[in-house]
Amino acid sequence: MWFEKPSLVCVLCVLCVLQGVCCRAAPQSLGNGAGTGRIRDLDGESGRRLHGRFLHITDVHPDPFYKTYSSTEEDAACHRKRGPAGVYGAETSGCDTPLSLVNETFKWIHENLADSIDFVIWTGDSARHDNDEKIPRTQEQVIRQNEFLVQKFAQVFGTEENKGQGDFRIPIVPTFGNNDIMPHNIFLEGPNKWTLKYLDIWRSFVPEEQRHQFQQGGWFYVEVIPKQLAVISLNTLYFFDSNSGVDGCANKHEPGYEHMEWLRIQLQILRERGMKAILMGHVPPARVNSKESWDETCWQKFTLWQRQYRDIIVGSLFGHMNIDHFMIHDFKDIKKSTKKGSMSAADVESTDFKGSMYEDGEITVASASGYLLDLRNAWAKLPVPEKNSKPTSIQDYMDTEVEEESTWQSLASTVFGSKKAKKGGKDKDGKKKKKYTDKIGGKYAERYSVALVSPSVVPNYFPTLRVVEYNITGLEDLIIPFQSSSPPPRFPNAQLQTPVSGREFDDDTEWENRVQEMIEAKKKKNEKDARKKPKKWKFKIPSPPPKGAPPGPAYLPQLFTLKSYTQYFANLTHINNDFIEPTIFIEEKEEDVEDKRWKEGKHRQHQGKKPKPKPHPKKFKFEVEYNTTDDKLFKLKDLTVRSFVNLARKIGQDAKSKTVEAAEDDIENGFGDNLDDDHEQTEEDDSGDDIEAEKKGKKDKKHKKHKHGTKSAWFTFVRRAFVGTMDPRDIDEQFCQGVDEEVEEQGMEL
Ligand SMILES: *[C@@H]1O[C@H](CO)[C@@H](O)[C@H](O)[C@H]1NC(C)=O
Ligand SMILES: *[C@@H]1O[C@H](CO)[C@@H](O)[C@H](O)[C@H]1NC(C)=O
Ligand SMILES: *[C@@H]1O[C@H](CO)[C@@H](O)[C@H](O)[C@H]1NC(C)=O
Ligand SMILES: *[C@@H]1O[C@H](CO)[C@@H](O)[C@H](O)[C@H]1NC(C)=O
Description:
This is Endopolyphosphatase. It is found in: Vacuole membrane. By secondary structure, the chain is an alpha/beta fold. Helix content is 33%, strand content 10%. A hairpin with a 2-residue loop joins strand 8 and strand 9. The longest helix is centred in the last third of the chain and has 24 residues, at 508-531. It is globular. The chain binds 2-acetamido-2-deoxy-beta-D-glucopyranose (4 copies). The site of one 2-acetamido-2-deoxy-beta-D-glucopyranose (NAG) has 8 residues, from loops.
C-alpha cells in the first residue's frame, strides 16, 4: 500500500543519482501527506514496524541559568547564592530544569526507548518559568529554549543523514504550553506571531497540509499510523481559564469556538475514514468542586464532543499540573442547552463552576492537596455496585434478565439522553433501583470519559517520563514508511502570513504593552456587546456514533485501546548524591512551608552552604515507579474507561471509612515497602470490587489495616500523585486523617 509505482522509483532514482545522492530506498509516500515524495537514503531500511508503545513527555522547563549548589530560596531560584540545588536539579523545589537534566533525560530516552516506541506525545511548557525577578523571561529565551528541545528530539529521533535538521524517524507531536509564549498564559487569536513562529520551530512536526490550520490557531493533527490512527494536538490555551486574551468557546468570534468547530470536523472526517484518534493538549480539562482549569463553555463542548465521538476517541492526554493523576468526566454534566446546540457565555457562567482552579490564574502546589481531596470526594459519589444478591422473586429475576438484554438500549438512553427511554426506566414499578451497569452507562461505562495527566520532567517532585502501551493486534507486520518530512522552506505560503521581521521578538516591554492594549480593547468591545441583548450562540451538534457501532477503543478493548502505562522517575535525591542520609525532618509546620507560593524543596534546611566541595553524582537513570500491567495496587487491567471508573470508585470509597490508627500501624511496620508480598489484600477484579464495597465495615482489624493503610487505593493514588517524593507520614497526616476540609490554596505558578 505504501509502494510507489516502479517507474516513478526509477525516475526519482535517476534524479537522485544525477544529484550525487545515493539512493537505495523506495521513495517515501506518506499517508499523512507530510512527505514530499523525495528519495532518502535510509541505509536499506524502507520503513519501520510498530511496537505498540509511545512516549508521553511533558513540562520540561529547561533553565539555562540553573547553577549547581545554588540556593532553592525564592529570591535565588537556583540561579544564585549557596544552597542544596543538585547537579541534576533541585527535586521537590520550585526551581526549573538544569540543562544537565534535559541532556541526561534525552540520553536516557535515546538509550532505552528510542527504538521501541512508535511516536511521541509532547505536551508543552518547553521554556523556563518566569520565576526570577532578576532574570526576567524574554521572548527570545522562550524561543531559544523551545528550539533547544527540538534539537534534543532531533538528536534522539532524527534520521542518520539529517540529524537535527528535520527528518525524524517517528512522528513527534508537540503542543503549546502556557509558558511557551509571552506573556505567559495569554494566547491571542490567530494567525499571530506565535503561531507563525512555532510553525517554523515545529516545521518538521506539523504536516504540510496542516500548516494552514496551524497558523490559524496552533491546532493540528498527525497521522501517527497513516490512515489508521491520528493524534490531535489541541491548543488548550484557547480553553484555559487564565488566558485573559480570549473568552471561552460559546461566542462565534472567539478562537475557542473556532477550535471546537475544527475539532468536530476533524473527528467527523476521521470517523468517515474509519480512523481513531488520540487527543492531546497541555492544560487538562480539570473540573471539580466549583473549580476548573478550562472555561466552562469549552468544557461543555469538549465533553459533548467526547460523548458524540466516543466511537473513535482512544483517549486524552495532558500535562501542566505536574501531579500524576487522571480525571473522570460525567456526560451527565453536559447541560441540556449544550446538548441542544445552543450556548451563551452568560448561561454557563451562571452555573456553580465559577471559581477557577487557580489563584491568580495558576494552579498552586499547595492547592494540589486540596485538588486531590476534591477529586476523592467527587469519586466517593460514583455509583456503587449493588450487592451480588440473588434475585428474590421471579419478577426480580425476570427484570434482571430483561435489563441484561436491554443493556444496549438503556445505555443508549443514558448516553443519548433519549427522553422516551429514560421515562421507561423510571416507570418500572416506580421505585425499582437501576442496575449498576445502567448507572454507569452500560457494561462499558459509556456515561464517562477519562483524561490522563502525566507528571512532569521539571523536578517539582521527581523528573518523570511515561510510556503508554496500546493495542496493535493485527498490525504487527505493517511497515510504515519513514516520515520524509524534510522541512518545508522556512517561510512558505508567503501569501498566508505577514513576514516575520526577525526583530518581532526583540522588544518585550513594547510587546507586553501591546498585548495589554489588545486585551483592554477586547474587553471594552465585549462589555459593549453585553449591554446589548445577551446573545445565544448556536453550534452544530456533532453526530453520535452510527447506529449499531460497537463501543469505541476507550471503552471496549480492541485495536488501539490503551492497555497500560509505565511510569518512570529519576530519583534525584539518590542521583545527586548530596543528602542521602534519610532526612530527619525538623518539620516546620506544614503550613509554614506550603503557605508560600514558592517551594524550597526537601533539602531546604541546607540553604546557605555548599553541600560538598564538588558534586559526585551517581549515574543518571530513570527507573520504573510502577507499571500498570503488573501493578497490584491500582489493578488496572487495561486503561479503558470502565477500569478507571472502578479505580476511582475504590479511591472514593476509601474516603468513606477512615481508619487512622491503621495507617499508623502500617507506617510503623515499614512504610509498606514489600508491596508485592501483600497476600492479605483482597484480590479484586471487576466483580470482586463490587463485593468489596458491600463488605466494608465487617472486616476484621487486620484487613482494615491494609485497606486504609499504605496499600489503600487512596494512599497509593496520593503517593503516586507526588511521584513518591512525599513522606508516608506526611501523606497520612495530610490525606488520611479525615482532612476533607479545605486545604489552604496558595499560589505558585506552574
Ligand atoms: C547539553 O547538550 C547540549 C547539546 O545538545 C550541549 O551543548 C550542552 O553543553 C549540554 N549541557 C550540559 C550541561 O550538559
Ligand atoms: C487487542 O485487540 C484485539 C483485536 O481487536 C482484541 O481481540 C484483543 O482482545 C485486544 N487485546 C487487549 C489486551 O486489549
Ligand atoms: C530516593 O533515594 C533516596 C536516597 O537513596 C531514598 O532514601 C528514597 O527512598 C528514594 N525514593 C524513592 C521513591 O525511591
Ligand atoms: C510493563 O510490564 C509488562 C508486564 O511485565 C511488560 O510486558 C512491559 O514491557 C512493561 N512495560 C514497560 C514499558 O517496561
